[in-house]
């Protein structure tokens, strides 16, 4: 009897281990597919931008030609929040959520919605910075999953952000700033009283709040990456608070 129970426990453990291995293999296969697709997407974006600039010699009109690809791949990144939520990657849902949602907001509710700002240098600045960052980041994840990670990709992943993050933020903030006069004039996405819902919403002031929210939020993302850098490049053991 006792040995039967023991057998049962051994069987259960074996079944659980098998389930975990299958789940692990499916998650790894999905992540490999996801990361390869994202690397390819951002590479397509990079090639389109280089070709456009070489052919036309100007950044004017560039956003329009890359808009569909940018919107598609940046929106697809929402899946990353899901990856953290279901626990297939060891990253904070909040950190990833802030990063991904702020970008999706910028792409859809600012750059895509206000045609007049699409030729601003700041738009090109953040698009170029995101593109370089994402090609590096997704190739890092891909090679890491395949256990063949070239050191220069690891180095680039955990060093380039030191400069790229502030540059990206400058591009993003200047873009929102450039949008403000158009938003004020057009009253877009705003709700004035009186209306049947009896609520008012001013997108202009909302954008100012978004700009101000970079002050507390951006340092958290930046310090998170500095901690990741110390952990991965210098092997420091870092105890993160549950974010
Ligand atoms: C609705 C209105 C909202 C308004 C909000 C306004 C305020 C916003 C302020 C925010 C400012 C953001 C500005 C930003 O957009 C500017 C730029 O991005 S500029 C370009 C420079 N950017 C960067 O360098 C980005 C850096 N950020 C990131 O990399 C990530 O997004 C981040 C979530 C911040 C951090 O990444 P993570 O925590 O995942 O670190 P690691 O890469 O080291 O990964 C940890 C472990 O998880 C494994 N992992 C993660 N993802 C994957 C994956 N896809 N596939 C496989 N494995 C994955 C990774 O390998 C690590 O594993 P291990 O621990 O085993 O090493």
From TrEMBL:
Main subcellular localisation: endoplasmic reticulum
InterPro entries the UniProt entry points to: Tyr_Pase-like_PTPLA (IPR007482)
Bilayer topology: Multi-pass membrane protein
Uppermost EC category: lyase
GO molecular function: very-long-chain (3R)-3-hydroxyacyl-CoA dehydratase activity
Alphabetized Pfam families for the sequence: PTPLA
Residues passing through the membrane, by range: 31-54, 158-183, 203-223
Subcellular location: Endoplasmic reticulum membrane; Membrane
Record EC number: 4.2.1.134
Reactions mediated catalytically: a very-long-chain (3R)-3-hydroxyacyl-CoA = a very-long-chain (2E)-enoyl-CoA + H2O; (3R)-hydroxyhexadecanoyl-CoA = (2E)-hexadecenoyl-CoA + H2O
GO CC annotations on file: endoplasmic reticulum membrane
An annotated GO BP: sphingolipid biosynthetic process
Role: Catalyzes the third of the four reactions of the long-chain fatty acids elongation cycle. This endoplasmic reticulum-bound enzymatic process, allows the addition of two carbons to the chain of long- and very long-chain fatty acids/VLCFAs per cycle. This enzyme catalyzes the dehydration of the 3-hydroxyacyl-CoA intermediate into trans-2,3-enoyl-CoA, within each cycle of fatty acid elongation. Thereby, it participates to the production of VLCFAs of different chain lengths that are involved in multiple biological processes as precursors of membrane lipids and lipid mediators.
Listed name of the protein: Very-long-chain (3R)-3-hydroxyacyl-CoA dehydratase
């Amino acid at each position: 009897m006792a040995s039967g129970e023991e057998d049962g426990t051994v069987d259960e453990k074996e079944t659980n281990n098998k389930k975990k291995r299958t789940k692990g293999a499916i998650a790894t296969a999905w992540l490999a597919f996801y990361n390869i697709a994202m690397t390819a997407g951002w590479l397509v974006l990079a090639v389109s931008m280089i070709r456009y600039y070489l052919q036309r010699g100007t950044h004017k009109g560039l956003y329009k030609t890359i808009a569909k690809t940018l919107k598609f791949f940046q929106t697809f990144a929402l899946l990353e929040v899901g990856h953290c939520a279901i626990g297939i990657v060891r990253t904070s849902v909040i950190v990833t959520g802030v990063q991904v949602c702020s970008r999706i907001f910028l792409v859809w509710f600012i750059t895509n919605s206000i045609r007049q700002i699409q030729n601003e240098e700041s738009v090109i600045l953040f698009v170029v910075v995101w593109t370089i960052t994402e090609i590096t980041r997704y190739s890092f994840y891909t090679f890491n999953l395949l256990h063949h990670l070239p050191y220069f990709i690891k180095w680039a992943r955990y060093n380039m952000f030191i400069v790229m993050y502030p540059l990206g933020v400058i591009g993003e903030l200047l873009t929102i700033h450039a949008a403000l006069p158009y938003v004020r004039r057009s009253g877009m996405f705003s709700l004035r009283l009186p209306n049947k819902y009896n609520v008012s919403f001013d997108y202009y002031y909302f954008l100012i709040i978004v700009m101000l929210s970079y002050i507390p939020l951006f340092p958290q993302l930046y310090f998170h990456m500095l901690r990741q850098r110390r952990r991965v490049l210098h092997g420091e053991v870092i105890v993160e608070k549950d974010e």
